[in-house]
Design brief:
Layout (H helix, E strand, L loop, with lengths): L22 E4 L2 E4 L9 H17 L3 E5 L6 E2 L1 H15 L4 H8 L10 H8 L4 H15 L2 H4 L3 E2 L3 H10 L3 E9 H14 L9 E6 L6 H8 L8 E7 L2 H10 L4 E5 L15 E3 L7
Helix pairs in contact: 1-7, 2-3, 2-5, 4-5
The structure holds magnesium ion.
């Protein structure tokens, strides 16, 4: 079967070989990055983010659009939790693999599920298939979303945009039937603005819809709310499509992780690795 990778909220559905791009250390995690060379310096990132906050105070009916997974939220603790449950599940039948899963920590997690099993020291392909199914049965459901944490600086930056007058749109590849309630609770508990006037949570109508297809269809309609000042996403394809629909807005790639074999990133997009703003 040809290698097929679902979009980022789904994560990879089968083994993905590491891309040839250089591997970089992202907050303690070694990850492949195609865009490391384009990352803004700390001062340039701070300047970019502050300029967006300022624009939110000046533009009429400003809107800022944020992806969730890999952009505002770090899913690695959700994956780690599932690996620890897998350890319990395998404890009798596969004690060696179970012990390896139990040792997984957030900082070990990379994009591909099977990559993570291999990195844990599990090479049996039958266990890969079983582990992948175990992960799929949990990762995309409300109950597990509460393990996510914010990408550094994310909450503070979203709040700064909101308080400067922007409407906030969370535009995510998570699906409405299975992930809406967990997502609302997660954003609330992490203290992002949600559930108040000036915020929208926009989810896919069904799991099967491809993320970029969904975002491409939805992006033009954001003009109903106002004028897009900036959009943030960890997938280059999504950054590019926002520039197609809203060329006047800043498009910013979060260089945390992305699906393998990404398209070239539009030259107009900025690249940052966190939302931290230093003085
Ligand atoms: Mg994402």
């Amino acid at each position: 079967m040809a290698s097929r990778v679902q979009s980022d909220a789904r994560g990879p559905v089968e083994r993905v070989e590491p891309s040839p791009e250089r591997w970089v250390r992202v907050r303690g995690v070694v990850s492949p990055s195609s865009f490391h060379a384009r990352r803004s310096s700390d001062s340039a990132r701070t300047e970019l983010l502050e300029s967006i906050v300022v624009a939110c105070g000046r533009v009429e009916r400003p809107v800022v659009v944020f992806d969730l997974d890999g952009t505002l939220l770090d899913n690695r603790p959700r994956v780690t939790r599932i690996f620890h449950e897998l350890a319990e599940f395998w404890s009798i039948r596969h004690p060696d693999a179970a012990e390896k899963c139990a040792r997984v920590r957030d900082e070990h997690i990379v994009y591909g599920v099977i990559d993570n099993l291999v990195r844990a020291g599990i090479d049996d392909e039958a266990l890969h298939r079983e582990g992948l199914q175990f992960w799929r049965d949990r990762f995309f459901y409300d109950a597990y979303i509460r393990y996510d944490v914010e990408v550094p600086g994310a909450r503070s930056f979203v709040r700064a945009c909101f308080e400067a007058g922007a409407s906030i749109v969370y535009l995510t590849g998570r699906d409405l039937p299975n992930m809406a309630l967990g997502t609302l609770a997660s954003l609330r508990d992490l203290d992002f603005p949600i559930g108040v006037v000036g915020t929208s949570l926009v989810l896919k109508p069904a799991f099967e819809v491809a993320d970029s297809e969904f975002k491409n269809a939805v992006a033009p309609s954001i003009s109903r709310i106002g004028n897009v000042v900036a959009s943030f996403d960890n997938e280059p394809a999504n950054c590019n499509l926002f520039l197609d629909h809203h060329p006047e807005a800043r498009s910013v790639l979060l260089d945390t992780h992305h699906a393998p074999n990404p398209p070239p990133l539009d030259d107009r997009a900025a690249v940052i690795d966190s939302f931290l703003r230093h003085g």
